[in-house]
Automatic annotation (TrEMBL), chain A:
<dbReference type="GO" id="GO:0005829">
    <property type="term" value="C:cytosol"/>
</dbReference>
<dbReference type="Pfam" id="PF10483">
    <property type="entry name" value="Elong_Iki1"/>
</dbReference>
<keyword id="KW-0539">Nucleus</keyword>
<dbReference type="GO" id="GO:0033588">
    <property type="term" value="C:elongator holoenzyme complex"/>
</dbReference>
<comment type="similarity">
    <text>Belongs to the ELP5 family.</text>
</comment>
<comment type="pathway">
    <text>tRNA modification; 5-methoxycarbonylmethyl-2-thiouridine-tRNA biosynthesis.</text>
</comment>
<dbReference type="GO" id="GO:0005634">
    <property type="term" value="C:nucleus"/>
</dbReference>
<protein>
    <recommendedName>
        <fullName>Elongator complex protein 5</fullName>
    </recommendedName>
</protein>
<feature type="region of interest" description="Disordered">
    <location>
        <begin position="259"/>
        <end position="280"/>
    </location>
</feature>
TrEMBL record, chain B:
<dbReference type="GO" id="GO:0002098">
    <property type="term" value="P:tRNA wobble uridine modification"/>
</dbReference>
<dbReference type="InterPro" id="IPR027417">
    <property type="entry name" value="P-loop_NTPase"/>
</dbReference>
<protein>
    <recommendedName>
        <fullName>Elongator complex protein 6</fullName>
    </recommendedName>
</protein>
<dbReference type="Pfam" id="PF09807">
    <property type="entry name" value="ELP6"/>
</dbReference>
<comment type="similarity">
    <text>Belongs to the ELP6 family.</text>
</comment>
<dbReference type="GO" id="GO:0033588">
    <property type="term" value="C:elongator holoenzyme complex"/>
</dbReference>
<comment type="pathway">
    <text>tRNA modification; 5-methoxycarbonylmethyl-2-thiouridine-tRNA biosynthesis.</text>
</comment>
<dbReference type="InterPro" id="IPR018627">
    <property type="entry name" value="ELP6"/>
</dbReference>
Length: 280, 262
């Protein structure tokens, strides 16, 4: 599913990527930007956490002319006071010409500076713009509460939830809603090479999904390859069962006995009732 | 201490940090040695340093630096390559119940009210002053400890905006300097702030206690995660080590390879 979304074979108007600090979604965003500029006439990339130079260093040289960068990072105010167009809606709208895709490298700062419904409203206006083919936004789910993530998820046609497996391997829980309304849910594993290019996209198989037989393998008799004999034949087993063990009582030889107590002089036998003083 | 930590970080001691945003998260009480390491490193390189001391006074850092062989007093007053902002003193002036009159020029006053513009301007002015000494090395700004602001009443949102603004003027500005932020991680309410710093930083250093509890021969565990740099994507790498602190040095060894065990 993820490779279809990356290649543009699966249409999706708004893709929301959710990540956490130990499994950054920025690597996938880089690959997404490269795929978009190749197949779409125009791409607008709004940067908040890394400057445009970060993306131009990684993307091919010819990409820089076809991607419009909006450096949101330098324009984020030091104070939350005063309303400002932190999502640069006007600037983005003016930059849209023909079929366009819009990428946000993080929605964290816009959400912190504006109320979530306002951010959702701006995103909705961008998604419904007839010239916008796709909007992709990254959100850090470990910074925002569940309510914020849910509000943004309600807008999204595809949600890609990134969680780490190792430094260069991430697990992606994908929920994609097709134009027909059919919803697909898949879990896929993505590995990256040292240059952060997507190396493989495979269906996720955890160790719990693997049948027990394939983990342990066929049972092998450990006694089969021994050079000496550790097992018993049937006659030997019968003979063993006949052996009388010394600590087992033999019913025939049991002698009944009783204990006779003979007091000596030192014994102080008191016939009195010890509880006679009690008024029971 | 300098050589051991540089060897563990696998960096050149004459050229580190180079345009990095370093986040030092301390989940134990022993992580302070890294702040003194960075101060010592900057002094050895004769690098311009702006230090925002929020958890200790200047005398504390100077005493430790003298033990490690550097003199912060002469660096501040004579060489002029150190600007020390007495954050602890300035914050205490803001929150003091007995001081009826507040000094409006105190940048922490507006910072605690949610506007970090004045504080960012102070750092910007400090960087401009440091630029006058014409050092070949880019400046470094160290903040110790950011969680003090949170405990003084600033909201995580305000601190996130502050860090973003500091990052803009220090690492992404024309000087291409480095920002080192130290924050203790022992409170749940700091998770939001720490998560943002973890996303934004290019190097994350995390110091934790041993999971098995206190040990007199192993004081803690240190993990360094090299994330993608601020201006160029790079392959992430991580290294782990355990450490034992001494009076003037630190011993770093592989996990489970303490001299006491061997």
């Amino acid at each position: 599913m993820l490779d279809d979304l990356l290649a543009g074979q699966e249409k999706s108007k708004f893709i929301l990527m959710q990540d956490a600090a130990d499994g950054p979604g920025r690597y996938l965003l880089l690959n997404w930007a490269r795929n978009l500029y190749k197949r779409v006439g125009k791409t607008i990339l709004v940067c908040y956490e890394r400057p445009p130079q970060y993306f131009t260093e990684w993307l091919p040289k010819d990409a820089t002319g076809r991607i419009t960068f909006i450096d949101g990072n330098l324009r984020v105010p030091a104070s939350s006071e005063g309303g400002c167009d932190i999502l640069f809606e006007k600037e983005i709208t003016e930059a849209i010409s023909g079929p366009t895709c819009i990428l946000f490298d993080s929605l964290t700062l816009p959400i912190l500076l504006r109320q979530v419904p306002q951010t959702c409203a701006v995103l909705h206006r961008l998604i419904t713009n007839e010239n916008v083919l796709q909007v992709l936004a990254l959100i850090h789910k470990d910074i925002h509460d569940q309510h914020t993530c849910d509000l943004l998820s309600s807008l999204a046609t595809s949600i890609v939830d990134v969680s780490p497996v190792s430094l260069l391997q991430h697990k992606h829980n994908i929920r994609h809603c097709r134009v027909t309304g059919k919803v697909f849910k898949t879990v896929e594993s993505v590995t990256y090479d040292s240059e952060l290019n997507v190396k493989t996209i495979t269906p996720w198989t955890s160790t719990t999904d693997v049948p027990a037989s394939s983990i342990t393998g066929p049972q092998v008799d450990p006694l089969a390859k021994l050079s000496f004999n550790l097992s018993l034949t049937e006659t030997e087993k019968e003979a063993r069962s006949q052996v009388k063990l010394p600590y087992i009582k033999d019913i025939e030889t049991e002698i009944s006995s009783r204990i006779i107590y003979q007091p000596d002089e030192a014994d102080d036998i008191d016939d009195e009732d010890p509880d006679e003083d009690l008024d029971i | 201490m300098l050589a051991q930590i540089c060897q563990f970080f696998a960096v050149d001691s004459s050229n580190f940090p180079k345009n990095e945003l370093v986040f030092v998260g301390d989940k134990s009480s022993d992580g302070g040695f890294l702040i003194h390491y960075f101060i010592n490193l900057c002094q050895k390189q004769n690098r311009p340093l702006c230090f925002v001391g929020l958890s200790q006074s200047f005398n504390h850092y100077n005493s430790v630096a003298q033990k490690l062989g550097t003199n912060l007093l002469s660096a501040r007053d004579e060489n002029k390559n150190l600007i020390f902002i007495e954050g602890l003193k300035l914050i205490s002036e803001c929150v003091s119940l007995h001081s009826g009159q507040f000094n409006e020029s105190n940048p922490f006053l507006s910072l605690l009210k949610g506007d970090s513009t004045q504080f960012v301007n102070t750092i910007d002015a400090s960087l401009a002053n440091l630029a006058k000494i014409q050092s070949p090395n880019a400046p470094v700004v160290i903040v110790d400890d950011l969680s003090v602001l949170l405990r003084s009443g600033a909201t995580p949102k305000d601190i996130i905006l502050l860090v973003n603004s500091l990052n803009n003027i220090i690492t992404l500005g024309p000087t291409k300097g480095s920002l080192i932020i130290f924050s203790s991680l022992d409170k749940d309410e700091e998770n939001e702030l720490c998560a943002f710093l973890s996303h934004l930083c290019s190097v994350k250093i995390e110091i934790t206690n041993l999971k098995s509890g206190y040990c007199k021969d192993v004081h803690g565990q240190i993990e360094v995660l090299w994330k993608d740099s601020l201006l160029n994507p790079r392959e992430p790498k991580t290294t782990h080590s355990q450490f034992k602190l001494f009076d003037k040095s630190v011993e770093l060894f592989a996990l489970g390879m303490s001299a006491a065990v061997l």
